[in-house]
Amino acid sequence: MNFGPLPSVDAAAVPSEGFVLDVREDDEWAAGHVEGALHIPMSDFVSRFGELTEAVEDGRRVHVMCRVGGRSAQVTQYLVRQEIDAVNIDGGMQAWESAGRPMVTDSGNPAFVL
Questions:
Q1: How far is Cα 41 from Cα 19, in angstroms, rounded to an integer?
Q2: Beta-bridge partner residues of 33
Q3: pLDDT values of the chain reduced to their tens digit, one per residue, 114 residues
Q4: Containing H/E element for 31?
Q5: DSSP secondary structure string, 72-89?
Q6: Could you tell me where the beta strands, DSSP code E, fall in the chain?
Q7: What is the C-alpha to C-alpha distance for residues 21 and 2, in angstroms, rounded to an integer?
Q8: Residues with Cβ < 8 Å from 113, sequence gap 6 or more?
Q9: Where is the Rhodanese domain positioned along the sequence (predicted)?
């Protein structure tokens, strides 16, 4: 069965109020992330799936983020199969940083992509 091309979006094109799901691990998240993003590491994703479905029960689009786009592509594919409006952020946090998009840390240290 072919699901067609994976829906994806350029990091620069994610709306500033867009909902971002970050599937990177804790150390990557701590180094720098998108303000307001929901953080569910891919390794915990299935067990914490309910947190995401609650957050998007209004039907809004999920912009899925990882470091370069591989893990987020897998999660996006899964979400699309669950009939959730999800798109993969092409190039992940590296593209986000390159596009000059804002990043934050919980510690207040300068944000960077690990």
A1: 16
A2: 104
A3: 445 679 999 999 999 999 999 999 999 999 999 999 999 999 999 999 999 999 999 999 999 999 999 999 999 999 999 999 999 999 999 999 999 999 999 999 999 999
A4: helix 26-31
A5: HHHHHHHHHHTT--EEEE
A6: 8-10, 19-22, 38-39, 62-65, 86-90
A7: 25
A8: 28, 31, 32, 67, 93, 94, 96, 97, 103
A9: 14-105
Distance of CA 32 to the CA centre of its chain: 13
Give the catalytic positions in this structure: 66
Three-state DSSP state, 33:
strand
Is this prediction's pTM over 0.85? yes
User: How many Cβ atoms are within 10 Å of 3's Cβ, its own excluded?
Assistant: 9
Question: Are 8 and 75 a contacting pair, CB within 8 Å?
Answer: no
| Nearest-5° Cα angle at 101, 57 to 113 | 95
Which residue type sits at 71? R
